[in-house]
Predict the 3D structure of the following.
Amino acid sequence: MRRFARSLWKLWSSSHKFQIGIVIIAVFVVVAILHGPIVATIGHGQDPLGTAAYTPWQLPSRTNILGTDRYGRDILALTVTGLASSLQVGAVAGLISTVVGVLVAFIAGYKGGKLDSLLSGTADVFLVVPSLPILITLSAYVTNLSLAAIGVILAIFSWALAARTIRSQVLSLRTRPYVELAKVSRMSDLEIIVQELVPNLLPFIGVGFANAVLGSIFALVGLEVIGLGPSNVIDLGLMLNWAIGWGTLSLGMWPMFVAPIFVLGMLFFAVNLINIGLEETYNPRLRKVAGA
Amino acid sequence: MADSENRIEVSHVTHEFHGAALRATGGKLVAVNDVSFSLTDSPPQIVNLVGQSGSGKSTLARIILGLQKPTRGSVTFNGKDVYRLGGRDKEEYLRSVQPVFQDPYGIFNPFYKVDRVLWKAIKKFHLAKGRSDGLEVIERSLRAVDLRPEDVLGRYPHQLSGGQRQRVMLARVHMLQPRFIIADEPVSMLDAAVRVLFLNILIDFRDKYGMTTLFITHDLSTSYYVGGDIMVMHKGGIVESGKVDDVLVNPEHPYTRMLLSSVPVPDPDARWKDRAQVVLAEEEEELVVDKPDIEAPNP
């Protein structure tokens, strides 16, 4: 365990890109978790998200830092609430798809043979299925979707990629001599997977999780923008949908679309920084150090 | 040492690899072709298995260790089929037959300290009760293979040299005290000095503890050094076997002669040119035969 903590610390101190990415994500996550109190603080005792809480169409001012929308709601409070629900969907979808993907990858890669063909084949099918049309159909058909349900649906279409990439790693790791030594040391398959393989694949799993979270958030944004999300939940995509529908661009009400785009852009930026940082750490040839 | 004889019997083992990459040669590669021999620990001996890369030596080792079920044929330990062992028998088999692998770099999981390999053996084979007992066993075994425990314990694999790592593997063998060691090219990645040290330890294990070693190598000088019996493997089959002194002095099979003539002679006065030509001529001849290496050899 101490080794694990130390390797985490090494990872942390190895790359500034990684640090910046983690800090941005951490700030977003804290804001999302504390969105209730933050919204309350913005409202000074009243609900800043209530209809006609303020004068509609205000540009940024001292009372409304990012101005207000068509119904007089505070845009900063909208953004914070939207961020919370977007991250929630991303976390649910990312978690499910990573867990399923890792399980499938390890079973397929380690066991091999017919089971591998079956599982990889299934993953391939899910990879080539065009997810957006199916999601559009699904959300048009099913009304009143909860955030968690949306997360599960998005996960169905994102576990396959994680499964494929991790499986290929498992295929290369399972023939390592130390795995064979573990076998002749009477370690069970489960022990070998958990103790010998998983620790070496943690960075891959981490990157896979981050990408699955981001992918799900953007998939939901895509649905919301074309008006097919869970309509009773405020998220960043829904804000973009409103911004387009109300013609905020021609009205000059820039906070309405700048705020969600900025947050989404920062999320994307942060996850990519983490990916680049991880890759530099685990692939020394990318380190811009002479002689490395 | 052993109160009764233990015996590994390899009979008519054939192993074929199938795959899309081998489609050009009919979709299969015969790595081991109808090989039969037996190993016994009374008297303890070192049996050399030599052959060039791709001759099926390592596949044979994996089959004996129970890591790769052969396509045909069987491996039995004291009469019981290795691939049909129940829990108890399996434990006894692994207790009796242990490997030393070729690659001292890949044998350790880079995530853990080297101690773990030794502790795992202690836990899985119930070699000691409690931590202090276990530590004692580990330190005794490390000293038995000329390692100082303080140099090795608490380190990560990349902090040790190749020779040290390979000797940690021997320490593991020393702890388990198996009847048989399957050593798959254990010295091919070590330098000359460490190589001799390693071979001496193997000989030591035979003399002191009565362990029988199947010593797989492509380097005839190492098999000459350890002596004992030798089997020459070529394209999956054993083409010649006998005492090292007989086979290496009076080789009968042309392949053995080819292997022998490929060993560089450390003599500046040797007519290198002539020898090189002989080698070349023979190698060229070999190459023509060798080309369809992936094909099933015609008996």
